[in-house]
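Pinned message: reference record for diguanylate cyclase
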Amino acid sequence: MKLLQQLPASLLYKCVDGSEVYANEACFKLFGLGSAREAFLETLAFYDPESKHELTEDSHPFNKCAKEGTINLHVRITSTAKNLNCVVSGTVIYSENQQWIVLNLTSAQDNDISQLAFAKNSPLDNHLAFNRLLSKISSQLINLNSENLDCLIEKKLGAFGEFSGVDRCYIFQFYNDGNLMDNTHEWVAPGITPHKEELKGLSADDLPYFHQVIKSEQIFKVDDVEQLPEVATLEKQEFQREGIGAVLCVAIYLNEKLFGFIGCDIVGSAFSWREHDVRYLKLIGEIVSNTLAAMSNKQSLEQVSAELAAANKQLDHLANSDGLTGIANRRQFDNTLDSAIRRGIRDSDLLSLLFIDVDLFKQFNDTYGHSAGDEALKLVAKTLHECCRRFDDLAARYGGEEFAVILPQTDAKQAHYIAELIQLKLEELAIPFDGSPGNKILSVSIGIATQACTIALTSGQLVGMADKALYQAKAKGRNRIEVYQ
Ligand SMILES: Nc1nc2c(ncn2[C@@H]2O[C@H](COP(=O)(O)OP(=O)(O)OP(=O)(O)O)[C@@H](O)[C@H]2O)c(=O)[nH]1
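Predicted structure (tokens):
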């Protein structure tokens, strides 16, 4: 197959029945290959640029050509040398008594960062295409929410990476005063190894030259990793570890603060970055940083308003609850009673009010001390609160050792039942009190007022009635329930 070797077209070929693949000089040249040609031929892989799946078995260009006679495909070829987007046209020829499959490779990039679709276009067409891509990316990034942000940014990196024909495109975020960085988003071309997961928590000391350059010049551009100066030995080692031949990074600012950088790599070969490559990457970096800034502002706003709502709730709670017992205070009692009457008028309902006063509490305080008195009041309040079973019921501290319970939609019988329940629960609690009128345990007297809600009824009247009933309970010997008649 000497003839094929001498042809200027870039060819890959193999015998129909054989497995060994050959390449001619033009093909090695296309991939920028000097030596290590065997390894190159052994590692050649073909990918579908659309689905990103490797072409194997029947879809492999050699097999497809053997089956169909001729083929014409867009493929991405990866190897130990540089990776290329190519148009592959294949044909079967007869030579040296054998059938040969010959694939003619035409680089869609011509070592130029433009995608297949733009390969034949002029720089102006390419620029217009990039502008279209840019406006598509920015319009899609405008109306996003934080849940799909990361996924969408990676998709956009992919759109840019495919457009540019680079092998990897990524974002790094600085933190800890710029001393550490994480690879937060990444897109890789088919066949390229991703590195995002392992590139976390990288210290400025790991890549000191890179950090110094990106922070002072906002751009880090290396056409050939092999040519990096001695001062960048650590960077060179890292890039070589990742198989990077050329790298381009530009800084990203968020709210005028250095946020991180966006970058792209060419794997396996050097590449001469041009002015427009830098410009395009910068523009994509700006869109991404604007998106991240908008999202971070939105998140801080949401956080501030959530904190404000929580503070208001807390304030509301403080303004309406009693400091000692934690149940509703007089303010909340007054408001709730007014609205219960209004609702009762609207629904033509009965409304009951209990007034509860701890018996001989002065003596309790004098005997057991003021703080024991406080503890007893807390237990009484808790008991009252637990006896309020309906959503609309409210137990409140009316003042001192006097409490009230508002019972909407409750007739006198039901109210009496609740009053008895309160006394029963307090008996069960059995707070010792030698001087008590009730069996040497702390007791309460309860006055009940039940009224039909009418426009004529005021909260002051209802309170007066319950208070009168309570006075009677006290007058009749305490530890008892009296109903206002
Ligand atoms: N420990 C404590 N005592 C309180 C609190 N608020 C009011 N008191 C006391 O409750 C007592 C109420 O006493 P009085 O109004 O004379 O009534 P009483 O001793 O309960 O007698 P009767 O109501 O007639 O059964 C007073 O000594 C108040 O100091 C409080 O928050 N903590």
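Pinned by admin. Summary line: Residues 110-120 have pLDDT under 50 and may be disordered.
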